[in-house]
TrEMBL record:
NCBIfam families: TIGR01244 family sulfur transferase (TIGR01244). This is TIGR01244 family phosphatase. Residues 6-109 form the Beta-lactamase hydrolase-like protein phosphatase-like domain. It comes from the Bacteria. It comes from Parapusillimonas granuli.
Amino acid sequence: MSVPIHALTDAFAVAPQLAPKDMQAVADAGYKSVIINRPDLEGGPGQPAAADVMAAARAAGLAVEYQPVVSGAMTAEDVARFAQLLDTLPAPVLAYCRTGTRCTHLYHAAKSR
């Protein structure tokens, strides 16, 4: 997989934008779940649609959730939902957004609740 993955713990990692073609490699790398935090069309029409990534993730045997969070506008509800996903999705979990930073902030906010 050519996408850089940054592990924050043994159970959680972040990545920049992923595409449907990356999902089998994510599963092959041992991840069990994917959280998509990048809203559709944030990067324009060339950005892979969450629905397409979700279909590819499911085909690769991954659990997947779409939780769009607007960059720079994270809310308490976003953090609570992310914490819930971390508690319920099979680990290890890989979350992605544009660069991975938003997912990292969500993770730290969820863990400090």
